[in-house]
Amino acid sequence: QEVFDAYLRSIGVVLPSLPPVEFAPAPVHHAADAKIEHTVKPRASCELYAAAMGARRAQRAVEVPVLPDPKIGHSKNSKTRRRLCPDYEDDIDANLKMMEKNAGERPLPDYLTTVQGDKISPLTRGALVLWMDKLGRHYNLAPGTLHLAVACIDRFLSVRTARNYRAYEFQLLGATAVFTAAKYEDQSTQHKLNTAEIARYCGLETSEEVRETERDMMKALGFQISGPTAYTFVGHFTRYFSQGKEELRVQRLAHRIADQSLLSHVCVGFLPSVVASSAIFLARFALNPSGVLPWNAELQELTGYDSLDLSSCVQIMYSFSQSLICNPPF
């Protein structure tokens, strides 16, 4: 409730007076990181969230749906924003947004319960994602591979009940998803990884199990794995960033926060563009100097979201990314 009240105050909603609060959480201080020019001091979640959401100042009742800000034009009508491919950018934006909303390429947000009957726990799913990340790092696979592989897993488990729930089957499924995603992300993957290598890594007797699992997975996914991921959108939304040190750090941290989101089954319910926008929001909040808003008119125009649209996702992602946000690794 404190977080929600602080958020309402930050966007200008007038709350009824309450009795004075006797306790105020003290901020936790960490040793300064020599690599970070702007020291980031962790704050209690309500303080951090209220400060971040100060990017959106408006008198708005909670029940009123989010409406487009008339001061922020759509990308199609903007003549002030820099453009890399002016003849195609509107089509690219529209196509990415259309693809991410394609129901055929979206996992069910509650598939762990509705499809798998709670026989796969969120912790088991998170452990599988960590194992898949380790596999990708071991073979130095292309950036974005893990996001696409996890998307394949979530989609597959949204339509197929696991045959059994042994670690062996999950590793086979995860390794196959990484292998399939890697081939899509980087054609040179075949020189690093093949079914025999996957079988060796997983301790299988034959590579035929990998090929069979891949056929089964692709059939379940309708042979469609081209949908954009949060990794895609972080790159897309930061394409106008200059090559300056600060903006590159924001981009790198946003990618790291988006990577962290893969561990949380709750984030499956958000569109990839929302996850990416929230990651950029939190990265800017963590790295930018005091007084700089984590969201501005240009980012709202680029992403199509204002800070109020991102409120739920930002809060959830902050809850499991505090170490990255409070102590950025670079």
UniProtKB/TrEMBL annotation:
GO BP: cell division; G1/S transition of mitotic cell cycle
Highest taxon in the source lineage: Eukaryota
GO MF annotations, alphabetized: cyclin-dependent protein serine/threonine kinase regulator activity
Gene (name only): LOC100831752
GO cellular component, one term: cyclin-dependent protein kinase holoenzyme complex
Organism per entry: Brachypodium distachyon (Purple false brome)
Span of domain Cyclin C-terminal: 228-329
Protein name: Uncharacterized protein
Family the entry assigns: Belongs to the cyclin family. Cyclin AB subfamily.
Domain Cyclin-like: 130-219, 235-319
